[in-house]
Amino acid sequence: MVLEGLGAEERLAYVLHDLFGLPPDETARVTGGSPGDAARLARRVRERIRGGGAARADGGPGRRRAVVGRFLAAARARDARALAAVLAPDVVAYSERGPVHGAPAVAEAAVAFARLAGVARPALVDGSVGLVAFLAGAPVSAVAFTLRHDRIAVLDITTGEERVRALELAFSED
């Protein structure tokens, strides 16, 4: 029913990106937008399917930052157990390579993020709490988190300087 209520562009971006696993570049080529737009459309549909963004607002700002801080600390330590503890059991990580399902698989994949964790900063990524990693002063990777009950339920991962720059990024002063 949710898919029927979507516009054609949203439905197409969601089906191509999430269901068929097409990277944002290829999805954008079909939809006629940019890779950032295609990823944003798919993310917006995912939020509607999961309850209209309510999970994104789970907990206050301090609690959301604490969850992201625990994720970042575990990634920097390359501690898959600590990563799994901050992830919801049914977590899904979406990236250009396609979705990864479940806390054990996402935790293992996140350990690979450790090389960028040392250069990552907390940020709002398209309005969601997240992280942005920089190399030589350029943003090269961004992760937007959806939280549920103080755990990470969804990770939306964007890589590549051009794609990351296309996102709406906001950094706090603290």
UniProtKB/TrEMBL annotation:
Q: Which domain of life is it from?
A: Bacteria
Location of the RNA polymerase sigma factor 70 region 4 type domain? 3-48
Gene3D superfamilies from the UniProt entry? 3.10.450.50
Q: Name one Pfam family in it.
A: Sigma70_r4_2
Q: Which UniProt keywords apply?
A: Sigma factor, Transcription, Transcription regulation
Which InterPro entries does its entry note? ECF_Sigma-70_Domain, NTF2-like_dom_sf, RNA_pol_sigma70_r4_t2, RNA_pol_sigma_r3/r4-like
> Is 4Fe-4S included in the keywords of this UniProt record?
no
The family classification in the record reads: Belongs to the sigma-70 factor family. ECF subfamily.
Q: What is this protein called?
A: Sigma factor-like helix-turn-helix DNA-binding protein
Which species expresses this protein natively?
Streptomyces narbonensis
